[in-house]
Amino acid sequence: MRNAQRFSFTEGYDAFGVPDALPQLPLSLTYRGTSVEVAALLDTGASVNVLPYRVGVQMGATWEQQTTSVILAGNLASVEARGLLVSAQVGNFDPVQLVFAWSFSDDVPLLLGRMNFFLEFDVCFYRSQLLFEICPKAQNIR
Q1: Which H helix or E strand runs over 57?
Q2: Coil vs helix vs strand at 55
Q3: Burial class of residue 105, CB neighbours in 10 A (0-12, 13-18, 19+)
Q4: What is the torsional sign of CA 116, 75, 54, 9?
Q5: Residue 25 near residue 40, CB atoms below 8 Å
C-alpha cells in the first residue's frame, strides 16, 4: 500500500489466559475540542465502531444530549447505545470523522468496524509477522 503506516499487533492473553496478539490501533479521538489517546481493536467482523461509555465521558460527551439510538447485535445486543460523531487522528494521517455506537457500558471494547472505520481506511493484516498496515482510502478510483 502506498502512503501506509505499519503498526505492531499487541501481545497479551485472551479471556481464557491463552497467549494471543491483537491488531490494536493507537489513535486520538476528539469531541468538541477534548482529546483522548486510546487503543482500539480493528474488527473486520464488527458492523459499527463501538465506544465504551467512559471514553465518551472523558471527551466531554453528555449521554442525554445524544438522541440517535443505535441497535447493537451479537454479544453487545443487550447494551444501549447512541450515535456519537468524533474526529479521529491515526498516525500522521489527516483527521477523519468517525461515527461510534457510544455504549452505555464500560464492559464493551473500543472497536473499529466496517461502519465507518473500514470505509475511511484500507488495512492489510500480516498476522504471521504480527504487523498491520493502514492507509487512508484511495481517492478517485475508477
Answers
A1: helix 53-58
A2: helix
A3: middle
A4: negative
A5: yes
Q: Which residues contact 82 (CB under 8 A, 6 or more apart)?
A: 63, 66, 67, 68, 69, 70, 101, 102, 104
What's the CA gap between 77 and 48, in Å, rounded? Answer: 13
**For residues 131, 53, 101 and 36, what is the CA-based torsion angle, rounded to 10 degrees?**
-50
Residue 1 CA to residue 98 CA, distance in Å, equals 22
Beta bridge partners of 21: 11
Taken as a whole, the chain contains a residue count of: 142
**Grid cell of 101 as nine digits:** 455506537
81-103: per-residue pLDDT in tens? 999 999 999 999 999 999 999 99
Question: CA 58, CA 31: separation in Å to the nearest integer?
Answer: 9
CB atoms within 10 A of CB 131: 14
CA dihedral of residues 3, 48, 46, 71 (deg, nearest 10): 180
The model's pTM is 0.93
Give the pLDDT mean for 4-30: 93
CA–CA separation, 58 vs 103, rounded Å? 14
For β-strands 49-51 and 96-103, DSSP reports them as parallel
